[in-house]
Amino acid sequence: MAKCLVMSDILYVGRFAPSPTGPLHFGSVIAAAASYLDARACGGKWLVRMEDVDETRTEQGAASGILRLLDALGMEWDDEIVVQSRRKALYREALASLSPMTFECSCSRRDYSGIYPGTCRNGAKGPARAVRLKVADREIAFVDRIQGKVSQNLAREVGDYVLFRADGFFAYQLAVVVDDIDQGVNHVVRGADLLDSTPRQIYLQRLLGADSPQYAHLPVAVDQAGEKLSKQTKAQPAQAGVEVLFRALEFLGQNPPCELREADIADFWKWAISAWDIEKVPKKAKIREGK
Ligand code: GLU
Description:
Blueprint: E1 13-16, H1 26-41, E2 45-50, H2 62-72, E3 82-83, H3 88-97, E4 102-105, E5 130-133, E6 139-144, E7 148-153, H4 154-157, E8 161-164, H5 172-182, E9 187-191, H6 198-207, E10 214-218, E11 220-222, H7 242-251, H8 265-275, E12 286-288
Parallel strand pairs: 1-2, 2-3, 9-10, 11-12
Antiparallel strand pairs: 4-5, 5-8, 6-7
């Protein structure tokens, strides 16, 4: 039986938030399927949000291709699709409300290596390029439903991070937090490649006066070289059909019976939703695919 971490009178709201930088591949189908299963097994809502905040990486036609594939895979989303590039007013407002904690920064990547040393904290040294958030020298800790206890000291491990980029776009960290709050998302199920970003997001949620969602970070599918499956590593686009869903379910440790490979999509989801158990997901950050 699925374990639902919300009280029965609070509706579970989960989401899948792909970046439309190319077609979905096996790795993104895992995140889509796990977030869908967790939401549906808890009787919750499942939202889809197009994370095209970094417009320099958007690929023409990718968003519609992703939605077509989700549809063909039988993943039915709730509510309207939210598109980040249309929500800049919301991000601008949040950035303004954080202004006591932010500063303008004129540094470029060439000015420092590693963790940002705080050069412009007390005034930009040249024409301002970006806006950064001042971080505190204390641990941000949370318990991930899959990865267990996670803790990070933002000052020592991350540094003052960018909320508004030098090239004029809002940063992912700000957009994702504003959107999760605005959409009432209280459960985030996504790849463990984002585990390291979560303390930054929790810190922002606290500054914005919001509760943090429950997080579950899934193992990430990596290739033989240990690299995350992605467009950069030439991962193949996922194909519609039950096969990729079956493989995702296996990857997620759910032990689907062989017959499910031949099932139609509706029967596949019926089985997968009733059998979903997040405790069975391997408690690892990476799993090699294609062995
Ligand atoms: N848009 C991000 C990605 O495609 C996911 C962000 C998230 O789930 O918070 O990697």
